[in-house]
Predict the structure.
Amino acid sequence: MSTVMKPTTPTSADPLMIDGVAYHSRLLVGTGKYKDMDETRLAVEASGAEIVTVAIRRTNIGQNAGEPSLLDVLPPDRYTYLPNTAGCYSEADAVRTCRLARELLDGHNLVKLEVLGDEKTLFPDITQTLSAAETLIQDGFKVMVYTNDDPIVARRFEELGCVAVMPLAAPIGSGLGIRNPYNIRTIVENASVPILVDAGVGCASDAAIAMELGCDGVLMNTAIAGAKDPVLMAAAMKKAIEAGRESYLAGRIPRKRFASASSPVDGTFF
């Protein structure tokens, strides 16, 4: 009697590990650009995400008393908050923003670092980001860093002690998908910390491709919040992340120039 093997379920047997903490979802989502707090809540719930990133310079998480707070719709006892330094163009601003986030979130040390170098492209300023990462790590922060898709730079961030490296797929909010898949694959192959694609995803197939390249996860905001139906897109992204991860674990067939018949002629009865 043959034994039927049950497929591995990535969400249970294959968790995403960030700084020693296991997460079932490999999709991280932003909380900006939605029409209101209710849509934010519904989209995040549909995404299945456990880690939500929040722009401290743009979102109220308690610093503006009397105004609606994101904490009310996405409670910290249910979600892991990932404060980010969106809108920062210098090391000083980024470090100050992270320290403010730690104060507002009662000592929370996990942060997403981004230091931008250009207002048009929103590409990272690598020199400033490296310096900021070193300062924050020395100050006890657990840094997940947004960077370009340069394998050498990614390795440098890992050597500094970042708990995750997050190369862009394409410019922030562009929806162009992964422009340099071989760079991303090289970063993944040489890393010993989680690699998560951050920025540039536009649709579910982009997310699946990132996962099929071996990325540990994907962070996105605009692709969901900017969709015609953000809640439905969030659900689609959840499925794409899961399917892409399963495809990567299963191992794709090699690419061949010519056909290879599914039903070979050899061994046929007539």
